[in-house]
Design brief:
4 copies of one chain form a homotetramer. Helix content of chain A is 60%, strand content 7%. In chain A, α2 packs across α3. Chain A is elongated and about 55 Å long.
Chain lengths: 123, 123, 123, 123
Amino acid sequence: MISIDIKSRTPIYEQLYENTRKLILEGQMTENQKLPSVRELASLLTINPNTIQKAYKQLENEGYIYVTRGRGNFVNKVNEQLIDQQAIEIQKSLCRLVEEATILGVDKKGFLEMAGRCFEEEK
Amino acid sequence: MISIDIKSRTPIYEQLYENTRKLILEGQMTENQKLPSVRELASLLTINPNTIQKAYKQLENEGYIYVTRGRGNFVNKVNEQLIDQQAIEIQKSLCRLVEEATILGVDKKGFLEMAGRCFEEEK
Amino acid sequence: MISIDIKSRTPIYEQLYENTRKLILEGQMTENQKLPSVRELASLLTINPNTIQKAYKQLENEGYIYVTRGRGNFVNKVNEQLIDQQAIEIQKSLCRLVEEATILGVDKKGFLEMAGRCFEEEK
Amino acid sequence: MISIDIKSRTPIYEQLYENTRKLILEGQMTENQKLPSVRELASLLTINPNTIQKAYKQLENEGYIYVTRGRGNFVNKVNEQLIDQQAIEIQKSLCRLVEEATILGVDKKGFLEMAGRCFEEEK
DNA sequence: GTGGTCTAGACCACC
DNA sequence: GTGGTCTAGACCACC
């Protein structure tokens, strides 16, 4: 369910963080569901447990999961506030892309077309 | 003309690379124009010459500038192929954003609105 | 396995680049094999780590190896495209040599003989 | 007659050296013919006179031209020994290419074909 | 431990 | 003066 690209430039812990975050937001992991234990996942992905720990810690810090010592890590209820915050992040990234595209000579019409293309591919 | 944020997480050499790349693509620096010398820029920004060197090297590798030893670094003719390649990169990033937004429950209409907002801000 | 000629005019980092590139293309280093760490190789060859780093970076840029921070440098799958590209480079160099030889009065027959001589020496 | 590529990586003085050498060997410049003066050529190519000087010096050292102070630089009689020496250089370069090609999996037959292709293009 | 970035400073080739 | 290479060594992120 969770896969890591060892060759990627993005740190492993970040890939892990992103992947499980996505699973939670998509509803593929639901409230109170148990995440694989640090050791379990570490040996499964042949990755250093510290790396898993770091990803879980970040998920906990941002409220995606909660930890009960001795029992494990569990999915939290999806927080509306978090979703809003992420929408803001996406908005920012989007505007950065718009800026870059503008430099290359892409205008509003062209950019919206590019965006549209992504939705077509998704189907 | 070129400014660096020493506190930023993105490496100095990369900031430099991005900034001058932008200047060239925007046409603010034109073909055969001389860039500040490695040492000159280094002392101007109080940065180590090696760091400038690294940025210039990258610009050269990607064809943005050409170097003549003993003379300096000069802006190359803008390469159409490079621009196309970058447009493709932007398209990819855009689709990645679309994917993320979709997870958060944003549909096509909503996403295009978000994109539109960026253009309004730009004005 | 990797040896450097410190007296040579060709930069150390380039010798390193060439040598390991060759090892990879020859199949003496295979996919996912770990390269010596930057520091390890540096102390082994009594060369500055930065120089090793530079060579590895170039190998990475051209797709010969991949890097994972905190783990090391690893051999990538040999890229067919890269090989083709190199064959083109050799073709170009060869034609340049032909041109030079022609100036000296060497004709096609003579040149092919010269080429043949190289293969005999190789044995 | 002599052209310089300012964007090239090979030093200007070397380009100059190579170009005039070629003219002499090809017989386009004949014995006792006067070369353009250092200053003349410098202003013609908008290049530093020192650079011209360096190229001329090298041509003189290798016996391609002779200098009479106050009068200028003149083409020498083509020296058979020099030509032989160059043939040896070409042989060396050729063998180096063969080595590289071998690594890429090109055999003797393939290499000779590549060489043949150069002659076809020349026509 | 492993790579990535950066500073300080030397020495070289080229112009 | 201009870029290119290299050493010595620091500090950081990642595993």
